[in-house]
Design a protein that fits this description.
5-stranded antiparallel sheet; 16 strands; 30% helix
Length: 277
Amino acid sequence: MELVHSGKVRDVYADGDELILVASDRVSVYDVVLPTPVPDKGKILTQLSLWWFERLADIIPNHVVSATDVPEEWAGRAIRCRRLDMLPVEWIARGHLAGLGLKEYQKSGTVSGVSLPDGLVEADRLPEPIFTPTTKAAEGHDEFITYDDVVREIGDDTAARLKDVTLAIYRRGAALAAERGIIIADTKLEFGRAADGSLVLGDEVLTPDSSRFWPADQWVPGRPQHSLDKQFVRDWSSTLDWDRTPPGPAIPDEVVEATRARYVEVYERLTGTAWTS
């Protein structure tokens, strides 16, 4: 096998015509990898993604070839995948106003060119889920783009199809999570083309690294929410005298433990299965 890419969290190895996608325990905030791992994080991301892939397979095919045919050293945190030509867009669906979407709305009343009602506050539920794509920057930060920008980048048919798929995945995920007492405020997806040209869901799906999860019984619009995702680490890092450039700060033990507990809680509440590392 050959290492072909090492990202902020995942390492990708080529194995013949297929890829091995390995999720590490690394944590990144503001596009900076922090020096302290969160134990089991990569395994939780992998296992939760696999759980979701099964429940979304009728909406669009995914890249999974096998969750077990991987090197023993990566068991539980690796997936054997099809090779995809990934599309240069972050496909984001939002059902609540938070994060960069909130900041964009406060400046312009829109997010990715989508007009929203006046008077919305942080964490408000939107009238309906919206599609708010961003660029997929190799370096630096992703930037909001409009649906028209996506059309110009990849064509009308592909843009329309994947906008619909993004919103369908979000709606199904949000509905299933709601039954388990969790709000999925927003989520980021990635798609690519397989060798035959078909569109395929790749990377991870509806995880605490790619989504905002809030306990439904603690949801109160107008303030920051209790996060069950990576936002907890972002919030901790924002209290530091750190300019958000490398090297990142070490994470204290208590923050590591609280972060891991949130990831485990999301996994257990969504899947109904106790986490065993």
